[in-house]
Amino acid sequence: MTGNAEQVRPLPPCVVITGPTAAGKTEFALSLAERFAVRLISVDSVQVYRGLDVGSAKPDRQTLARFPHALVDIRDPGEPYTAADFARDAEAEIRSARAAGRIPVVVGGTALYLRALRYGLDSMPRADPAYRNRLAARGKREGWPALHAELADLDPASGRAIRPQDPQRIQRALELHHVTKQRPSELRSGRGRDRMRSSLMIVITPANRAALHRRIALRWEGMLERGLVEEVQRVAEAEGWNLDLPALRAVGYRQTLAYLSGSISRSELPARGAAATRQLAKRQLTAFRQWAGGLWYDPLNQSTNDRIIRRVGRFIGDADCAGPDSGVRQIPAVAALIPDPE
To answer: Which of 260, 245, 257, 252 is nearest to 276 (CA)?
Structure first.
């Protein structure tokens, strides 16, 4: 793990609201924003991009005007944004919020970003743009599963950890091997010091997996009604149909591009998109189960919202998050913990 002092310095107390896609994280964060003096900080690898609104379930303009979210709409789709960028930017927002007497509420489901913020990142060599471009060309020509097989031969551990349908991570792993002549898995030292031990970790997910799947299906219906296809076409055209952009490889955008390119039919799109989203949710849940100290809440329980509000109120008082002039009400609460969902 990197020895950068900034990456091992503890973060001020904050509230983290995370969980799988379509679980309802934003609604609970907005409920907190209505009651407490908070600063909402988005942790979403797609909502950082301007113009990617429908497919990322970004809050609408009216909501963002009333409840601003830091780290939303900060990049154009053609600009890179990494976990390291997020960890740096989110830390700055957290410290700025605390300095202003507000409670940082980090809300979103990008597990890689949250891990980078909480545990830091390994020091890695800089990118080699020329080699990366050659890999991208090979990915188009040969297919990313072929490059994944090559990676698995070079580094079986990385082959097991990276999916054949994950071009970004395959590309980076092969690039690391090219630059360092080492196996990419050997460059990772594992989890670093927990920088968020004083924070409140809330995981929002239905206790019933079938209920989450129904929410995902409904979200897809809603996104298509709100113009997902038109959004993807507009962004793809603006970026010259560069399908290797990380922003356009995200779940939802990738399946819509497959439809626009003729690989699947319009009638197949909702089912394909929902299936990919269910797989994303499964990966997110696997990651969050490995987190220490998370409190799991079922959004379908009618008492959940009140329980979270009371729990956050108690956290604010216990963690001394609020100064006397912050405007934050300090109220007692009882934690609501539900079993790990199956």
So the answer is: 252
Q: Are residues 94 and 224 in the same domain?
A: yes
Distance of CA 128 to the CA centre of its chain: 25
Determine the Cα–Cα distance for residues 26 and 40; give it in Å rounded to an integer.
10
Q: What's the pLDDT tens digit per position in 257-302?
A: 999 999 999 999 999 999 999 999 999 999 999 888 899 999 999 9
pTM reported for the whole predicted model: 0.80
pLDDT, tens digit, 9 for 90 and up, residues 296-332? 999 999 999 999 999 999 998 875 554 433 333 333 3
How buried is 106 (Cβ within 10 angstroms: 0-12 exposed, 13-18 middle, 19+ buried)? buried
Rounded distance, CA 66 to CA 233, Å?
A: 29
Count: domains in the chain: 2
- What is the b/e burial string over 285-304, where b = at least 16 CB atoms within 10 angstroms of the residue's CB? bebbeebeebbbbbbeeeeb
Q: Does 140 share its domain with 285?
A: no
